[in-house]
Amino acid sequence: MTTVRYLRVAESELIEAAEFYESQSPGLGRTLVEDIDATITRIVEQPRLGQIVRGEHRQRLLHHFPYKVIYVHQPDEIIITAIAHFKRWPEYWRDRNGR
User: Fold this and answer.
1) pTM of the entire predicted model
2) What distance separates the 2 farthest-apart alpha carbons in the chain?
3) How far is the C-alpha of 10 from the C-alpha of 1, rounded, in Å?
4) Per-residue burial over 13-26, b = 16 or more CB atoms within 10 Å of its CB, e = otherwise
5) pLDDT tens profile 54-74
6) CA–CA dist 69, 43 (Å, integer)
7) What distances in angstroms separate CA 37 from CA 22, 27, 54, 79, 90, one per listed residue?
């Protein structure tokens, strides 16, 4: 069984994004989290389908928000290294190795 682990900084990014959207419209933060959860479910089901973006890092795009989930696929673990906005500081997460 594959487990999912967030780096603390990636978890902080998720919380910050959800709080921002929730402040814009009640319920929108929850919708973002649901979109991230659905994307991570797809990653767990087919981890190699994510586009390779740097070294071992892959990405999957969210369906409804301008974010991508950056992750590293290990034999029995998916490590979420970033919840990255499309237009903010490209590859700011590149030094995160997920180990």
Assistant:
1) 0.87
2) 39
3) 22
4) bbeebbeebbeeee
5) 889 999 999 999 999 999 999
6) 9
7) 17, 15, 23, 14, 23
Contact (Cβ atoms closer than 8 angstroms) between residue 82 and residue 13: yes
| Domain extent listing, the chain | 3-85
Residues near 63 by beta carbon (within 8 Å), at least 6 away in sequence: 35, 38, 39
- Distance (Å, whole) CA 41 – CA 37: 6
pLDDT bracket for residue 1 (50, 70, 90): confident
> How confident is the model over 15-24, as pLDDT tens digits?
999 999 999 9
Inter-residue contact 94 to 54 (CB < 8 Å): yes
Q: Name the amino acid, one letter, at 73.
A: H
CATH number for the domain running over 3-85 = 3.30.2310.20
